Amino acid sequence: MTDGHLFNNILLGGRGGTNPGQLKVHAGGIAWRKQGGGKIIDVDKADIARVTWMKVPRAYQLGVRLKDGLFYKFIGFREQDVSNLTNYIQKNIGLTPEEKQLSVTGHNWGEIDINGNMLTFLVGSKQAFEVSLADVAQTQLQGKTDVYMEFHVDDTTGATEKDSLMDLSFHIPTSNTQFVGDENRPPAQVFLDKIVSLADVGSSEEPFLTFEGIAILTPRGRHSVELHLSFMRLQGLANDFKIQYASIVRLFLLPKSNQPHTFVVITLDPPIRKGQTLYPHIVIQFETEYVVEKNLLLSEELLSTRFKDRLEPSYKGLIHEVFIKTLRGISGAKVTRPGSFRSCQDGYAVKSSLKAEDGLLYPLEKGFFFLPKPPTLILHDEIDFVEFERHGAGGSSVSSHYFDLLVKLKNDQEHLFRNIQRNEYHNLFEFIKAKGMKILNLGGSQTTNGVAAALHDDDDDAVDPHLERIKNAAGDESDEEDEDFVVEKDDGGSPTDDSGEEESDASESGEEKKSSIKDSKKEATGVKAPSAKGKSRDGDEEGSKKRKPKRKKDPNAPKRAMSGFMFFSNAERENLKKGNPGMSFTDVGRALGERWKKMTAEEKEPYESMARADTKRYREAMADYKSGGPSTTTNMDSGESE
Biological process GO terms, please (predicted)? Predict the structure, then answer.
């Protein structure tokens, strides 16, 4: 195959942690992507030093060793993959994969092979196990013949595993010929010195840089952030997290719009755990104008060799810039900053809410990031479509100033960002359009004017997806009986809204409102019932404390016009019920809504035509009704049953 081979595999972590993903072996090297997004490994063929095969339980393992000492292991290959992939690697990468055998005898006496940062224990010529020396936290000599190793116990690597390797001990007799010593320096000491030189043991005990009293929003609390050579520690009063730098996928530096704070987000894979909660993003808040001066407690040798061109001896500047530069230098993670998007106030984000939490939505060059809680990162290539929606909650005075943004992912997951100010619409729409994302609009048009008209359309025939969903969930009766759900302007309220601003069809025609026998009795005794025209706003506010009785609909009033979606629903609802006898009203409405969204403009045209005709009928009938219709008082009184 000229484009390479693609496999579903599991990447083995340093101490046995497993990550399912997809491996691609191509002419330029090897690439691996974690399932569901996240960690990515891309290895150029020029950096590969050695490739090995090993038979493991129920599968084959591919080992890839790099020239800088790193070693990756991938399992999940079938027997037929081995020969095909071996030939491909020989032809395109120029290396011949070696076959390694696994020892399953259970012997604990053998030889040690150290290659790069990997320590392999061999029984005969077969591998019993291997560990990464980068995972060694500390080691010491016990007696004259035993070397004890303790491994990192952090909150990321192996966080989802039931078991983790904690410590390991090797016995190296004085007669050992592999690590030759003398009377003052036994073989065990020679082996210990070798481990220390490769694992940087001891140098990571004290941090080389500390930031005190940092406000961390997720997980919440004030912590001291300590940067060690092999890990980062977040130390607080109640929690203490250790994070390996290899778990840091990306860093985000995002200023808060018109506020004296800046977000720094550390994205982790795997995440840290607090109780049963996983945190893939650490959200830190810095004071934007706070200046610090920091000296790194590192030797000149380390700075000139291991961290050459990555770290400087000292830093002076804004605290978030110093933090980002040092963390990037030690971890190698890339930094994402705000892109081309600007809000109407020249900020980098728009105010929004997600899952009842207020925050900021950052439109970035490769994704959207909602902060601070819950921190939600959505990559552009994960998005199926976005949809601008009229605000569905609150009175009409509120909804006309806000809109919602629905983001539908390819895995059918949805994120609804609510309460975005109307004046942010144009910049947000232009940004999304420039990124080539599919936009579903209320008005069905892919133009700016079309979306704006959909957001602010107050006509009776405008299709509101939330309103239509409510109607369909209620079944066939919703078309006539449940008219309290139908609001003339901008989803002006709910049936239980006591604000006094919602009016029925009769009150819209300018006629008096009488909604109960009690009101009729008041009129009979000389107390005049208030009318819709005569009642002031102040009177509404004073009366809002008492629940208003439900107003009855004038039976002589014309039936409201139906939308194209409702004509479609009436035509297809029975067919859908017959094909799915057990489907509930709610599921029927949801299924019809999904089908309507996927229909083309040509497919919708017959129903839209019927809707236009029905709108014309309604307006003409309403004009006749207003000019010569029967009075509300007579109709409501005659309709009383008590």
Answer: DNA repair; DNA replication; polar nucleus fusion; vegetative to reproductive phase transition of meristem
